[in-house]
Amino acid sequence: MARLLLVDDIAPLTELFAETIRAALGHDVHTVALLSAVDTTLAGLPPIDLALVDLSFAGQDGTGIDALVSIHRYSSATKLAIITQGDTYVADILRDAWELLPIATVIAKSTPLVAQMNSITLVLRDGSAPPDPAVRLMLPPRKSATRTAESFTRLIQHAGHAKFWTALWAVESPSYKALAEYSGLKLNTLKNYRAQIIDDLAQHGLTDPSLNDLRSFAIRCRPFLRERMRQLGTS
Questions:
Q1: Nearest to 57 by CA among 93, 26, 29
Q2: Of 149, 168, 147, 146, whose CA–CA distance to 228 is shortest?
Q3: How far apart are CA 93 and CA 59, in angstroms?
Q4: How, if at all, do strands 3-7 and 103-108 pair?
Q5: In the CATH scheme, what is the code of domain 3-136?
Q6: C-alpha distances out from residue 159 to 105, 164, 213, 218, 233, Å
Q7: What are the sequence ranges of the domains in the chain?
Q8: Per-residue pLDDT at 87
């Protein structure tokens, strides 16, 4: 018997899915609906063999990437899987999670239960399973060898860069003027900081990104940026 954790904000459906796994596969399944409760839930449980995490958490501060990073940081031995509707609005989140974390498989919620149970069994037995065909086209054909969690060190090289990203998180409609007012940095300084990291942003699929594009990226990848800030002592 394995121990599973389901992280999904639609609690009734998640409990139903958990009960299906218990009945079909005989595993011990725990659920959590709030991103803010993931860490405390992990601390109160024995080691988790497999975590299945949704990507979209409406009205909550963060995405499934936040939960996946927390789980992986808590126990690198826990297998990570994504379970998602596969809608286009989560495509960027899915790509980031797939490339930056050791995702064992991706399961589509629209897939028949038999196929979902089979994917879970394969991950627990073999360590991975093929991504669901329903979402496979949303994934890159191969993972980048250079796009890793460690690659974020190039995006925050000093405390000034940390202020730049922090301002992007905070300012909903970013302009250089608004970012300068929030951060206390000069307009030209902010433009220089963007120029300093522009080549490294291309590694993350961002070619000459707008400030709105950078804000979206910053929010999706906030756990990796925050980890780099912690390394620099700027968080």
A1: 93
A2: 149
A3: 16
A4: unpaired
A5: 3.40.50.2300
A6: 36, 9, 22, 16, 9
A7: 3-136, 149-232
A8: 87
Say which residue the tokens 């970013």 belong to: 174
Overall size of the chain counted in residues: 235
Q: What is the pLDDT of residue 90?
A: 93
Q: Which two tokens stand for residue 187?
A: 């307009």
**CA–CA distance, 210 with 189 (Å, rounded to integer):** 17
Residue 233 pLDDT exceeds 90: no
Q: Residues near 94 by Cβ (< 8 Å), separated by ≥ 6?
A: 55, 82, 84, 86, 106, 135, 138, 139
Over residues 148-207, the pLDDT tens digits come to 999 999 999 999 999 999 999 999 999 999 999 999 999 999 999 999 999 999 999 999
How far apart, in whole angstroms, are the C-alpha atoms of residue 65 and residue 82? 10
Q: Can you give the pLDDT at residue 100? A: 96
Mean pLDDT for the chain overall = 95
